Amino acid sequence: MEAFYNLLAGFAVALSPLNLFWCFIGVVLGTVVGVLPGLGPAATIAMLLPLTLKMDHTTAIIALAGIFYGARYGGSTTSILLNIPGESSSVVTCIDGYQMARNGRAGAALGISAIASFVAGTVGVLGLMLIAPPLARFALRFAPPEYFALMVLGLAMVVFLAGESMIKALLAMLVGLWIATIGTDLFTAESRFTFGQAKLLGGIDFVAASVGIFAIAEVLVNLETQGGAEIFKLPRGLRNLLPTLQDLKDCRFAFLNGSLIGFFVGALPGAGATVASFMSYGIEKAFSRHPEKFGTGVIEGVAAPEGANNADAGGALVPLLTLGIPGGNTTAILLGGLILWGYKPGPLLISEHPDLFWGLVASMYIGNVLLLVLNLPLVPLFAQILRLPYYVLYPFIIGISVVGVYSVNGSLFDVWIMAIFGLLGYLMRKLEFPAAALVLGMVLGDSLERALRQSLMMSQGDLSILVNRPIAGVLLATALLILILPALRKVRSWRVQAIEQEG
Amino acid sequence: MARDKNNLIAGACLAVFGAYVITGASRVSYTSEVGPGPGFFPLWVGIGMVIFAAALMIFSFLPAKKQLAAASWRSALRALIGWLAVMVAVFLFGRIGFSLSFILLTAFLICALDRRPIWLAVTVGVVLAVSFHLLFVLALDVSLPAGPWGF
């Protein structure tokens, strides 16, 4: 009941005209930077941070948080329409979102993405409001062995990205893990696999690689046939551009799955929205009545990861506000802002500054409504991009990709990387290797290696530390189960076939 | 004789690549003073690659459950030309700037690969390049590679 009164007080703060105005500005700016690949929320918040020094602090955090969760709404747009993942957490959305666009359902994909983001964003805020302190305490029990197990569980999702061949998926994932090792080793400062290139010391830029693998490879595949392989179908009429009631019904579980996975994984510092989006996609496929259709343009395959990467925003604020631990780049900059304004994020923040915490929570409810109201009418507008003739669309995709990749670090080297990965992505498509598995390995490789090495340092080389701890043990057992289930199913089907042949 | 040549070749290439990863990993230390060294993780990744690449090669000799459409490499020539054009454009970005390189790339893709009239190709290139400049450089203050003439 106390939370309810606090929330009412928070609404009184958030609904003041000035705070409402800055919440609106924040979510609009967030949507814009989310739509444009490369321009992430972290860079935008960092650029705007100095401007907030003279603002009221509650207003400032409301505006900056608006950019943070607003960017998650916008991130799906280029993934669905152009197969360009603007952020790592939007990679999974490309798998079914882009196929939906190709099947003439771009509007439905964009619409369900906005609705899933709204539902999951609201669940994330509810979680932040109701269970932040106990969840933060639970998250603190995650030491390197638990993180290692969580990353292994994330990698086990490769099973659901495999398509026809599990071996090819595992190989793609291993190549991704190797790519993640390129650069300077964080523990010893030794360089690995840099081919004598100083620019590779910092590793391969993830955005550059994933834009190459998805967007440039897609263009190359379509260049194979004169006149483009297939022109996008786009139905006329607003009704046909939005999700149907049946779509919403089909996505009930996906909304719940994305919301819960996104929030809980988001609350773990360092785990991030990407892990959450891959996990929610895997769970959605595992429990689906038609798993074989995933990858061909299934609406649940868009709703689950999009929900997860939005609920993650609420989850990521849990350790930030209650423990002062940032979970990623953006929350690290928000932490910097809070410290700059004179706050001490930690267990006492909520009790010492209730106006800030509850004002932020209330503003996130308002921001989510604003984002839904803003984004749904934009769906038909964005979908018009697909009406462009293919000979305009493909140079447009290349141009957006180059601008997005170049704008991250202002580096032409990253554009080279994008082009090289474009060829790799094309070859993977031709040879039927799942590109998402490679991206999964790239995303989790660094965290996996760090957690494994830290764990072995803790135990002085004793591997049993990875399975002896209860949380790590349960997570690893789940990962093992996920990995061996397809093999068991295959053995069973072989046996059934053999019995049938004998009969 | 392999039933799936693509898988056999891909497996062989990945096995060689895995061997390279193992060699590269063994050049840096496997252990350090505080625990596993920088060679520890990539070594096991390389070993995994070799094992699964060998499995892929072996399976390429087995009859496939479903006949996959063999990748057509004849049509890949057009894609390869398109990719080379992108590489040339990236090379030119740092020399003559984004806008002009992008116009040249677009004109090539539309005119040479898609056999459309040159005026259409150049018009599309110019319109897109100007739109990108207006949106990103002027409106959003994003810096793009500029040529000697400043754009």
Comma- or semicolon-separated keywords:
heterodimer, A: 503 residues, mainly alpha, two-stranded antiparallel sheet, 73% helix, 1% strand, globular, B: 151 residues, flat
Using CB atoms under 8 Å apart, which protein chain pair has the greatest interface?
A-B, 59 and 69 residues
Envelope shape of chain B: flat
Strand content of chain A: under 5%
Q: How many strand elements of chain B?
A: 2
Q: What is the helical fraction of chain A, as a range of percent?
A: over 70%
Percent helix range of chain B: 55-70%
Could you tell me how far the N terminus lies from the C terminus of chain B, measured between alpha carbons in angstroms? Answer: 56 Å
Structural class of chain A: mainly alpha
Give the helix tally of chain B: 5
**Strand segment count of chain A:** 2
Largest sheet of chain A: 2 strands, antiparallel
Instruction: Please state the CA-atom Rg of chain B, rounded to the nearest Å.
Output: 24 Å
Mean pLDDT across the residues of chain A is 85
Domain module count of chain B: 2
Assembly level: heterodimer
Q: Over the alpha carbons, how many angstroms does the gyration radius of chain A reach?
A: 22 Å
